[in-house]
Amino acid sequence: MLDERGRPRYLKGMEQIKPPLTLYLAAPRGFCAGVDRAIKIVEMALQKWGAPVYVRHEIVHNKYVVDQLRDQGAVFVEELDDCPDDRPVIFSAHGVPKAVPAEAQRRQMVYVDATCPLVSKVHIEAERHHAAGLQMVMIGHEGHPEVLGTMGQLPEGEVILVEDVADVATIEVRDPQRLAFITQTTLSVDDTAGIVAALQARFPGIVGPAKEDICYATTNRQAAVKAVAPHIDALLVIGAENSSNSKRLVEVGKASGCSYSQLVMRAAQIDWRALEGIRAVGVTAGASAPEVLVNEVIDAFRDRYDVTVELVETAVERVEFKVPRVLREAAG
């Protein structure tokens, strides 16, 4: 039984011994190289130019990170129209349509592009196919900033969005023999494979990347969840509701046999009553969730249980991306 604070309840006079629980900690988890780079860009911009520095859209999809940067002097806006001409502006890690930097240049603004290099790779790929006369099919989620940014690299009508296998059957293309596909980087590996197969079945000549554009970090975090799933009764994914890669981790957990897979922003959101009687819990974090929030969740479990932590590591990430040269130069 649990008390009103979600801690195990004991009968009067009994020694309060915490019940045992094993936390299986997935690795890799949390920040990827692109997120780490984007946050550094905002911090270094504040150091170089002072506050305020404007950021178009959330730099990464995590409220804790955004709030920390806001406290340092970052101002988050949705559109370039919300930025003054005389202050620096940073474009988020998700990427932006070509029209955004073009408008910043027209207004003679100082801007820094924090687009993840792996997203930029997809942009370059789309432009290369377009130059070769191919129409693009993009696998992604409508309205996601990365999708808007990628589709905005090409003229209107040159990129057709598909969200699932059903969409593949209904899209209308200019020439079935002159098609290429690209993908949002944060999707589920398994789900995307199914859509790719459907595209290739309907359009046998469609051109794809050497391997799908799902980034190494997304792939690694999903693989770690699959490795953890057989050992656990429940999975907690630390991440934001608007974080695509975090939501995909929840889906991967469920697909891997862990029916109780939940997304939580912080420890305060854990439903302790739903975990009553459970003896093994998996913990991971989306690519934009800082390790401090993982530690917060572990501490919350230690407050209630006699915790044993088991690390399940499926890959070691050593990827680093340089920040733009303008920030590496000494402040003028």
> What is the domain total for the residues?
3
Number of strands: 12
CATH topology of the largest domain: Cobalt-precorrin-4 Transmethylase, domain 1
If strands are numbered along the chain, what order do they take across the biggest sheet? 10-9-11-1-12
Q: Write the element-wise H/E pattern from the N-terminal end onward.
A: EHEHEEHEHEHEHEHHEHEEHEH
Radius of gyration: 22 Å
**Main sheet: strands, sense, barrel:** 5 strands, parallel
Overall geometric form: flat
The CATH class of the largest domain: Alpha Beta
Helix-strand category: alpha/beta
Count of separate DSSP helical elements: 11
Average pLDDT value? 93
Task: Give the terminus-to-terminus CA distance.
Answer: 62 Å
pLDDT below 50 for ≥5 consecutive residues: which ranges?
A: none
In CATH terms, the superfamily of the largest domain is 4-hydroxy-3-methylbut-2-enyl diphosphate reductase, catalytic domain
Percentage of residues assigned to helices: 25-40%
Please state the second-level CATH architecture of the largest domain.
3-Layer(aba) Sandwich
Strand content: 15-25%
